[in-house]
Every structure is written in structure tokens, then in C-alpha cells.
Predict the structure.
Amino acid sequence: MTPQKITMGANGRLNVPDNPIIPFIEGDGIGPDVWGASKRVLDAAVAHAYGGKRKIEWMEILAGEKAFNQTGEWLPAATLEAAREYLVSIKGPLTTPVGGGIRSLNVAMRQELDLYVCLRPVKWYKGVPSPVVHPENVNMTIFRENTEDIYAGIEFAQGTPEVKKLLDFLTNEMNAGKKIRFPETSALGIKPVSKEGSERLVRAAIKYALDNKMPSVTLVHKGNIMKFTEGGFKNWGYELAEREFGDRVYTWGQWENAKKTQGEDAANARLKSEEALGKLIVKDVIADNFLQQILLAPQDYSVVATLNLNGDYISDAAAAAVGGIGISPGANINYLTGHAVFEATHGTAPRFANTNTMNPSSLLLSGVMMLEYMGWNEAAALIEESLATTIKRKRVTIDFYNLMHDATLLKTSEFADDIIRNGGMMS
Ligand code: NAD
């Protein structure tokens, strides 16, 4: 086998060779522990699932503290170049540099590679300690817009010449000065939300839902207050659903039209029959209500599409219901170019660096997402099932151990050994 690059085919599908080169960033703090464990499980699963015919050729690239110590840079150009060239990469948590320069390495990578989807699947594995009564009802895949919104980084500090200039413009040319309650002491931020950006996010969410036979896509927004940005997102999302996905979807907009013309009972009956036909239902919920719904009726939601800030809150709130930080995976993806960075969603937990005690599940499950993205579903399923078995047997790392009765405490590396053993993946 000669190691080769993953490339994007003309048909918009990835070409994945049997021996793909995949760059990895080990991560800082607990990164080496959780990455070491995850890598072992990923390799064992691939070897077992494909009888040695497939193998990942890992290529280390540097970022974060390790990069800074070795090269003097937090995010060397070579790292971005490799992530660009090899399309698919995976990373552990990175220390955020304190003071000037790069605000966040993760944000920098997302912007450089235009990774417009932050994908966060949230589901419960039997036995994982949870603060809610029915965590088994949570099974959501969150598509968070990753490049726009108040996160664009257009912010001006209070008292600066820039903020004064912007205030003058708003007052004199936009007639909006009166809306700013304390102009002398205000900082200002800008919230760009585009039709293009909203459409590519909603398109990705709908495609994913259709491909995976999921029942609904929910557009979560604050369009009741921010009519043109958040409301735009909702409207553009509905329009796109009807225009591009035609009779494969049924939207609440269509339901509302039916209600106006035929009355509520007829509209409800139509909605039921569209559901029965297996149509994907596209609906919307206001963000504050949605944060309640995560707790009250999570079973009503499967794929969620939302803007950047809402997505940040919703991802973590939903993750908390299924066991939180140690087990939630994530990915940042551009479905058009194929670029994807899979990552642990927790930080570096520096206090626990090199203790071999932390839970590797977040990074490991992001590796599972990576295998699925590559089409290596058999290896992905093997890991997921074996991880579930290991947790069900109450053989867990300290974070879960502290919340469970009669559990057996495992080190990070022992947890990986158990997953490999339970999945029959020993070589
Ligand atoms: P953190 O996620 O590192 O840790 C908070 C707490 O969560 C830890 O003390 C630990 O108790 C628990 N925890 C985290 N990961 C765990 C795991 N795998 N298993 C079990 N328990 C786990 O958050 P923080 O302390 O706010 O941040 C530390 C550093 O990480 C900062 O430099 C921050 O900027 C950075 N950070 C990086 C990322 C990223 O790279 N994606 C994300 C968040 C924070």
C-alpha cells in the first residue's frame, strides 16, 4: 500500500484511498493522553474491519503550545497548508494563546479553510450519567453556522476613535443613533448574516437529514427580534428547502399556507400525511424556546440548523443532557471543498495533563465521525458499539466513575484497551 492523499472528486464526493494520509494535531494539556488512546482504537478498528486492507497513514502537524515551543509560532503556515492539502484532519484540544495575535487557533483554522459547518451530534450512550430523566430521548445533530454572525470578529472597543466614527455614521447617516441607549460609553459589534452563508448551512443540514433518513430539520433562530439577520436565516432556509428539495420536504411554511386556505384541521391532516409519506419536515423554533425544548421535548428534534452564537449555546446545552464535555464530538466541515477538521470539543484541562486519567471519548467519537465522513462506516460502527458496551459495563474514566454506582475506574489508556478488547479488535 502506498500512502495517498484524500481528494475531492468532480462529483462532489471524496476519493478515499485505502491508505490515506491524515494529518493530526495531538493537542496540548490532556491532548497527548486522549489522542494516544483514540489513535490506538481508530487503528485497531480499521485493521479489524477491513482485514488489514485499509490503514490510515498518520502525519503529525503542529499547532498550539507544542508548535510554539518547537517553532515559535502558535499556528505555523505549514500546518494550515497540510490541512488544506490533505482535506481531512483531526485535532486534540489546543491552548488558547493569551494576549495579542491570534484570538483562537480554532477560529483561525475555521476561517482559513472556510469550514462553514460546525457539526455536533448529540446522543446518549446507555449508562452515561446524565442530569435529565430521559437522556435516551436526546438524539440531535446540530449544524451550527461557523463563519458569520456576531462571531465575525467585527467589534470596536468603547472610547476608541473607531467606535466614535461608527457611532457618528449611525447617528448622522443611518438615523439610528437614538437606538443606542448610552452612546458615550458603548462598545459596538456587527452581526453579518448573508443569504449565501445561510443557504449553504441549511442545504448541508437538509442533505444530511435526507441521506440519513432523519425525520426533521429545525431552523433555530431569534427572528422575532432580529428580523433581518436571524429572520433572514429562517426565511432563506424555508425558501431553499422548498426550491431545492421540492417534494422530498414539507415545511411549516407550507403548513401555514394550508391553514390559511383550508383551515387548521385540514392543514394538520396534510402535515400528518406528509410525515407518513416519509417527507422530511422542515420547521422552525425561536432560540430561547428551543433551549427549553432540549429539556422538555428533545424527542421532537433530530437535525438542527442554526446561526453561530445560537449554535454555540445549543451545542453545549444539548451535550450536557447526554453526559457533557468528556464525550461530545465535533467537526468543522466545508462540504463543497471537502475540507474537514474533526476535534474534541473540550479544552486542554491543563491540571490533568499527563495524568492518563481523562475521558478520550470526545476525541475518539470525533474520529468515528471522521471515519463516517470517509465512508469507512464499518470501522466507525465497530468503535461506537464497543464504546457503548464498555460504558454499559461501567468500566469508565474518572469523570463518569464519580457519578456512577459500582463502576470500575479505568485510566485513559485502559479505557482504550477495553474498547479494543470488547470490539474483538485485538491483532
Ligand atoms: P476544559 O474543557 O479544558 O476543562 C474544564 C474541565 O472539564 C476540566 O477541568 C475537567 O474537569 C473537565 N474535562 C475537560 N475535558 C475532559 C475530558 N476529556 N475528560 C474528563 N473531564 C474533562 O476548559 P477550560 O479549563 O476552560 O480551558 C482550558 C484551556 O483549553 C484554555 O486554554 C482554553 O482556551 C482551551 N480550550 C480549547 C478548546 C479547543 O481546542 N477546542 C476548547 C475549549 C477550551
Summary: The pocket of nicotinamide-adenine-dinucleotide is lined by residues 34, 93-96, 106, 325-326, 343, 346-351, 358-359, 362, 399 (CB under 6 Å). The chain has 15 helices and 17 strands. The radius of gyration is 23 Å.
